Amino acid sequence: MERKLIGVDLGGTTIKFAILTENGDVQQKWSVETNILDEGSHIVPDIVDSINHHLDLYKMDKDQFVGIGMGTPGTVDRDKGTVIGAFNLNWKKTQNVKDEIEKGTGIKFALDNDANVAGLGERWKGAGENGNDVSFVTLGTGIGGGLIAGGELLHGVAGAAGEIGHVTVEPDGYLCTCGKRGCLEQYASATGVVHVARDMAEEFSGESELKTQTDDGQDITSKLVFDLAKNGDVLALRVVDRVSHLLGLALGNLANTLNPESIVIGGGVSAAGDFLLDRVNKYYQQYAFSTVRSSTQLKLARLGNDAGVIGAASLALVFA
Amino acid sequence: MERKLIGVDLGGTTIKFAILTENGDVQQKWSVETNILDEGSHIVPDIVDSINHHLDLYKMDKDQFVGIGMGTPGTVDRDKGTVIGAFNLNWKKTQNVKDEIEKGTGIKFALDNDANVAGLGERWKGAGENGNDVSFVTLGTGIGGGLIAGGELLHGVAGAAGEIGHVTVEPDGYLCTCGKRGCLEQYASATGVVHVARDMAEEFSGESELKTQTDDGQDITSKLVFDLAKNGDVLALRVVDRVSHLLGLALGNLANTLNPESIVIGGGVSAAGDFLLDRVNKYYQQYAFSTVRSSTQLKLARLGNDAGVIGAASLALVFA
């Protein structure tokens, strides 16, 4: 009997689920809304119910499964299987996620943080091409990282390895929510791009649709900035250049440190595609050491929203 | 019978040797000069002879040894056991180091690059306190790095992991020998400190012994800069502050990336001791993400010149 994996990608708005083969092929996918009411106390029971319900639906038995893997926001204790401080889930107190899910489903459970898990996914079945050394950077509302070196996910002593979003790229730059100044996240996340655009619009005096929309008080998004840049808007092009410069600097230094086969760029901002990649690459080439420049390649993520469930499922392979 | 390890630290001026227990206690140490004549073709035979000679001297037999480990400059192919491009050894062509040493001594042999090996040494028996996640940075004529994460040395896809000396800290800064601009090595290595001192002396107009000596065309060294700074020389203090700032930035970002238990600072420049460490720490605290700041500690190296032979010997433990 071929055994299966379950991957769970827990986010602030939806919980995504998938059933996969041990080779990482997705066979079933579904999702439910995340109910963060009552200090997020419904989340774990909802996960258990949803898994049990779908196994019933597909007439599958718990013994068919190697295990469940999950990616989650917050600070993860992988040994204890607990999570704390996931503010978008309203999880302020320690949650015994592993114990409750194992008890509720009868299936073994492993977890890690969401960026690490997405990194595992892109490495396994995406742009990382199952390499031993793959770095993943996700440019979303914030910036997260998942670093695989020598075939293993790096965690560091306090689980903070891969905090690429908080690498300092502008020593006296924008104040970050983390309390430091000049973090990459303040420039190259979706919110960072908008911040850069607003500041540059203020100082810009030429002809620009981005300038007009900003001055009109319209809602500026990272996507709008890239769309306008692609259409040749002068200000938008300058914003993209500044963002690409700082991202190229951070990724160059990441590559100088880890020399992975590839640095995979994912998350909402990466939807700008080759237009972004080409510009980041220009600066990356400038900041990467020669051996690194010729051996570490920047790539766009390939799995989109599936990276999380696929990578999460791969955590369960430890039980195989 | 207790088995032993041999550690070899190959440098451009001396080759250091040590015999150690499997626990890393040094029992014998000796060294020979490095003969780089004739394209460095005497080096490997000299190593073989010196080992065989000392085993005779100590009445030890090759069967007593688990293996020989060696740290070397240049580009290492660990699988093949070869080295190429070690310019301070005159090794321009590929050297079959492993084959020749195994044949010449009858003892198994493993090698890695010198900074990695020194990192292994400080991690095993030095300031790294045998932790699973230890980063080592050596501030010598150049700057090297050895990164241990999850208990394993990181190599990257082309062996260039840990190129901390070539992390960009000043985007439009000093031109580096590697061809890039603004590499950490150009500011915080022994030669970098002198470069910074000379440039700052030119712009400085106050009272300063460092200024006087520089203007007199005297030989400035990194040690002199730190000694004068310790005596309160205003210019020297500013130089140390600038060096510490850029080093704090680079180490803060290294910590944000790997979150090791400790970053161990070694090499000649680190002889400035707590005077340097305190100043680097001030900036490190500014650039490290909060979780990282409280979990990753900067430390001074403890093993001095022995780090190389001790770490090299630890490579041989793979044969145990």
Automatic annotation (TrEMBL), chains A, B:
Q: What is its EC number?
A: 2.7.1.2
Return the broad EC class: transferase
Biological process (GO) annotations held by this record are: glycolytic process
Record Pfam families: ROK
Query: What does the entry list under GO cellular component?
Result: cytoplasm
Give the record's family classification. Answer: Belongs to the ROK (NagC/XylR) family.
What is the protein named?
A: Glucokinase
